[in-house]
Amino acid sequence: MSTDTAPAAPGTTPGAVPAAPGSGTTPGFVAAPGTAPGSAAPGPEAPRRPRLAGRAPARPGPAAAVHSVSAATAALLGLVGLGALLHEPVLIPPLAASAALVHCAPALPLAQPRSVVVGHLLGAAAGYAVAAAASGSAWAAAVAAGVTLALTTLARTPHSPACATAVVVVLQAPAPGRFVPLLLGSTVLLVLTAFAASRVRRAAPKYPAYWW
């Protein structure tokens, strides 16, 4: 005795079992073994990042790291040499932070010449203004740093080390006739050394991204 089979639905493989209505699978097909209804077939898993790696940027290559660190160190040594010639303390902590920015993160807005030079000048101005209105205490230094942050934001010259310059002015009260010209010359020197260093190594990112 022969058995009759119903003709397969158009577009289905002969012998395939139709999916039950409401199962979430494509009509006329059965999900592959081991997969949930409505899910795609298993594929290669994406490589998992180490849990402790975080979202930090990739480590620079040895040549790039040596170049940026050497250039920043040379610029700071130049400031020390300038201070020795003038018998003035030219190298201050905010300038060391600026050197790190312009040589290790040359594409950031904080590292551009406009921000470096004008930012430090605004920090010095805020420091002298707050020191004149209040005593040279840590409270006044904190206010001067906040005023500097506001000024640099409004002037479109973001530069975090400038806030430290305001703190130095309030706490140490350097003579403005000597301090401000040295500060201006030091920031210009940092910018020029970063510009020159970015042209020495062909693969280095060109600095600055913009001058003004």
Percent in strands: under 5%
The ordered string of helix (H) and strand (E) elements is HHHHHH
Q: Major beta sheet, specifics?
A: none
| Sequence stretches where pLDDT stays below 50 over 5 or more residues | 22-32
Structural class determined from secondary elements: mainly alpha
Work out the number of β strands: 0
So how many helices? 6
User: What fraction, in percent, of the residue positions are helical?
Assistant: 40-55%
- Average pLDDT number: 84
Terminal CA distance: 94 Å
Question: What is the radius of gyration computed over CA atoms, rounded to a whole number of angstroms?
Answer: 32 Å
Shape, principal axes of CA atoms = globular
Commentary on this structure:
With 212 residues, the protein is an all-alpha fold. Helices cover 53% and strands 0% of the residues. The chain is globular and about 60 Å long. Mean pLDDT is 84; it is low at 22-32.
Helix/strand layout:
Blueprint: H1 62-86, H2 93-104, H3 113-133, H4 138-154, H5 161-172, H6 176-200
Helix pairs in contact: 1-2, 1-6, 2-5, 2-6, 3-4, 3-5, 3-6, 4-5
What's this entry about, in short?
By secondary structure, the chain is mainly α. 53% of the residues lie in helices and 0% in strands. It is globular and about 60 Å long.
